[in-house]
Specification:
Blueprint: H1 2-25, H2 42-54, E1 56-60, H3 90-98, H4 111-120, E2 125-131, H5 161-170, E3 175-181, H6 210-230, E4 236-240, H7 251-261, E5 266-269, E6 296-300, H8 316-328, E7 332-337, H9 347-363, E8 377-378, E9 381-385, E10 391-396, E11 407-411, E12 415-421, E13 429-433, E14 436-440, E15 450-456
Parallel strand pairs: 1-2, 1-7, 2-3, 3-4, 4-5, 6-7
Antiparallel strand pairs: 8-9, 9-10, 10-15, 11-14, 12-15, 13-14
């Protein structure tokens, strides 16, 4: 018993290590911009353009890892690297991790509350983890019993979690994205029980066991076909686990079939350069420069992607400033949120995101449906543009802990005619000295980001 307690304590330490090092250590590296391949399907191009209008979305991580509040899946991976922090009996820790399936019972599961919180935050699209690398399915898959159906929640009227989550967000007119992990560490055709699991990859040689890999290909494509046909209309198929490529699981055939029911479906075979990475996904970071290809920064609200007991949330100001910068650089921002073990978005998260939504309700014109403008950055001021390029928005991203200045300055983007506050249409005084613009902000403004609107010469 003492050894077991010691192992659990070590695992808790590992979870903390994972949380602290998550963004630095197991993130997928962004594909090179030069590797981007523009889709040839006009419906996909139209869908991408529609998605680029939305700017702000949510990525939900929820699963058996939410029960103890540990890092999703990675505690199962036995790679000998510092960030995994292995100080425990690996065989026993796998049993410990998978035992949380028998404790998964989100009795207060309320996807409508999720949708209300995210709508209030000003979000316009969502992505939900139907299956992470651990293989646990939050949908009633016909191809495995390692799913929500065999948990204590299995007899609940809303047992088929993914179906109800997607439905709740469709009712709010969100664009709908389906997250799915290509690797599955629970499936015997990926991690064979006959061999150890030394890395995140399959633990056997495909050339020696071609039938095993064929079985895995069929298993994976069957689950994807199941989701794309039985769970309503989708806009985005967001595939994680870039050490397995879409080609290796027959993604072309999956997409061909899926796009019959979901015309223009955006494929995100993330970090796998080529025709099925319809937008790129820098993780936990923002590109250093403006990129004029489709891309999305995926960044968690706290240290973990999923729920944790002691979260370190980013502030609402940090979230908003991140959104402003990403939009000026040409991307979308999907914020990682972890619902609680009992199936709710906690009040701290709802309150934090409400502040972001308040700003967007009065200043969203400078964010939604905008595109890039060449002169996009000057100090704390970021610039976006209407699609016609004639109207420019200057957004002063107020740094955390600072007071709003009386004036802001930039070079270029010379105004023509009046300049107004986006929030209320009030005119703002400015002067130009050569290519330098100085704006005098009205007194009495709330101490928050300021968005200005003007035409350019």
């Amino acid at each position: 018993m003492k050894n077991w307690k010691r192992m659990v304590a070590c695992l808790a330490g590992t979870a903390l290590t994972l949380s602290m090092n998550a963004q630095e250590s197991y993130v997928h590296q962004q594909s090179e911009t030069a590797d981007y391949v523009w889709p040839t399907d006009s419906k996909v191009l139209d869908k991408i353009d529609e998605w680029q209008d939305l700017k702000f979305g949510v990525l939900f991580h929820w699963g058996i890892y939410s029960v103890p509040g540990i890092c999703e899946s990675w505690g199962l991976c036995s790679e000998d690297v510092n960030w995994l922090g292995h100080h425990r009996n690996y065989v026993e820790s796998k049993k410990w991790y998978y035992s949380f399936k028998d404790q998964f019972n989100p009795v207060n599961f309320n996807p409508e509350q999720w949708a209300e919180v995210m709508e209030d935050a000003g979000m316009k699209y969502m992505i939900f983890t139907t299956k992470h690398h651990d293989g646990f399915c939050l949908f009633d898959s016909k191809y495995t019993d390692f799913s929500v159906k065999t948990t204590p929640f299995g007899n609940h009227p809303r047992m088929n979690v993914a179906y109800h989550v997607f439905d709740a967000f469709r009712q709010k007119n969100f664009m709908i994205g389906c997250y799915f992990s290509k690797p599955d560490w629970h499936c015997e055709w990926y991690w064979s029980p006959y061999f150890p699991t030394p890395t995140r990859r399959e633990n056997y040689k495909r050339n020696l066991h071609p039938d095993w890999w064929k079985n895995y290909q069929e298993f994976t494509s069957n689950q994807l076909n199941e989701l794309m046909s039985d769970y309503g209309k989708f806009d985005i198929l967001w595939l994680d686990g870039g050490w397995v490529t879409g080609d290796e699981i027959g993604l072309d055939k999956v997409l061909e079939k899926a796009r019959v029911n979901n015309p223009g479906l955006i494929a995100v075979d993330r970090t796998i350069r080529g025709k099925n990475e319809n937008y790129q996904t820098p993780e936990g970071t923002i590109p250093k420069t403006q990129l004029n290809i489709p891309w999305e920064s995926c960044i968690p609200l706290a240290g973990n992607w999923g729920w944790s007991k002691r979260p370190r949330f980013k502030s609402s100001q940090k979230v908003l400033n991140t959104l402003i910068e990403i939009c000026a650089k040409g991307g979308c921002y999907v914020l990682g949120v972890g619902p609680t073990p009992d199936g709710l978005i906690q009040k701290e998260v709802a309150d934090l995101l409400h502040v972001v939504g308040q700003w967007l309700r009065t200043n969203g014109k400078a964010i939604y449906s905008t595109r890039t403008t060449p002169n996009y950055h000057a100090g704390n001021t970021w610039f976006t543009a209407d699609k016609d390029g004639k109207t420019i928005y200057a957004i002063y991203a107020l740094p955390e802990g600072e007071k709003l200045p009386s004036t802001i300055e930039w070079q270029g983007n010379l105004p023509k005619g009046s300049m107004t506050l986006v929030s209320n249409g009030r005119r703002v005084a400015y002067r130009c000295n050569g290519d330098k613009v100085t704006v005098t902000l009205p007194k009495g403004l709330k101490n928050e980001a300021v968005a200005l609107q003007f035409r350019v010469k």
